[in-house]
Design a protein that fits this description.
By secondary structure, the chain is an all-alpha fold. The chain is built from nine helices and no strands. The model has no long low-confidence stretch (mean pLDDT 84).
Amino acid sequence: GSLALTCVCIWNGFFNSIQSVCRERQIVKREHRAGMKITSYITAHMIYQAFLCLMQALITLAVCRITKIHMPSSGLITPFFYVDITIAFFLITFSADMTSLLISCMARNTTAAMTVMPFILIFELLFSGGVFALTPTTEVISYFTIAKWGMCAICALGGYNSLPMTSIWKQISKLQDYE
């Protein structure tokens, strides 16, 4: 579940701003020659994207509530779990958004940005440690992924380590009937 929620947040963040700068590249160049500061332009995008990410985090939380996903009653950081998980969703989404904004700044056109994005998504998924076991070498790479930290945050907030190991106990109970 934490992998799925993390992937939702990363997906939202990546596709928020992947084309925002490269789509306006010619306009930005013209305005920069006229005296516009690039830092002001990027800061304005960051503020807008932060608001967008907060709204997406709230919508993701609302979908979790509507689908009746069981959530803990108290938070880990604040007394309210929903505040904690909203902050986590926001940080995961905003991190992915800023990564895609960086890619958008480096890409020459929207086609190049959209071509790179699936590879970044695959990198996030493969090296997060949530799908495949990682070797010691690839474990180091996982520390540079948003997905690893997002899953760790959601698992910590949900009290993953304190939950019973139901799948293992179900398998053991099935094996008891064999001779």
